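Slide 14.
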Amino acid sequence: MEKVCIMNETRGVCLAEKADIAKSFFSRLKGLLGRKGLHPHEGLVIIPCSSVHCLGMKFPIDVIYVSSGHKVLEVVENLQPNRLGPVVKGSKYVIELSAGTISATSTQRGDILVLEGLNPK
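Slide 15: predicted structure.
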């Protein structure tokens, strides 16, 4: 699976050194299901995506909703297993990170992100 490094350009911090990219129907459908957790600096980028769920998951996550211009539209901290995230209008992709990442990096609405190594296809 393709991997990228996610940087918060606004804050000058790394959100994930190794984030998987889920672009296909099946990789987006599976998401993080079946995993026991995420290590710090791991994540999943789901493209395209404007909403997520944690149904069947075993651990909480932080979620960042991002526009096509890589601007953070919404952040959801500590989304618990078996919960639904919001539907965010204008979201092009979603980043799922280990719980606590948003707080630790001070990521907030309006920040600009960079996905280093993203294949444009």
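Speaker note: DSSP finds two helices and seven strands in the chain.
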